[in-house]
Design brief:
Number of strands: 0
Number of helices: 3
Helix content: 40-55%
Low-confidence stretches: 100-106, 112-117
Order of helices and strands: HHH
Strand content: under 5%
Mean pLDDT: 77
Radius of gyration: 18 Å
Largest sheet: none
């Protein structure tokens, strides 16, 4: 399947913004390393997983069979959520669409409400000292 050169209004810009945000997230978390505690919070991990899940749902509409190719992404994220003790993602129907229709277009508006608290002091990445 060959995709058109021009996307529907707003699709290209939003996809570009998602890619930029993912790069900024990686650049932010990379200094923490994989074995150093403190880089991720529960809410941040859930937000990142939800972003990937929602992006995969959107990308599933790119063409016939795309949802089948993306099924392992959803399975891997479900496993990650279990390992991290996060709530499961919305259940999907057989065609890859959320089984429970969202009440609004923006999935983040239907999520649980976060309680606002005083912001903690910013954490600093681990220092990298060379010997």
């Amino acid at each position: 399947m060959e995709l058109p050169t021009i996307a529907a209004p707003g699709v290209g810009e939003r996809a570009d913004a998602v890619a930029d945000a993912a790069c900024h997230l990686y650049d932010t978390i990379a200094p923490w390393g994989s074995g150093v505690p403190g880089g991720w919070s529960r809410a941040a991990a859930e937000d990142a997983a939800e972003a990937i899940e929602t992006t995969a749902l959107a990308l599933a509409s790119v063409g016939p069979g795309a949802e089948v190719v993306l099924a392992p992404v959803h399975a891997a994220l479900a496993d990650l959520r279990r390992r991290l003790g996060l709530a499961p993602a919305d259940a999907l129907s057989g065609d890859g669409i959320a089984a429970t229709p969202r009440t609004v277009g923006n999935p983040r508006r239907t999520r649980w409400a976060r309680v606002l608290t005083a912001a903690p002091s910013p954490r600093q990445p681990p220092s990298r000292t060379t010997s």
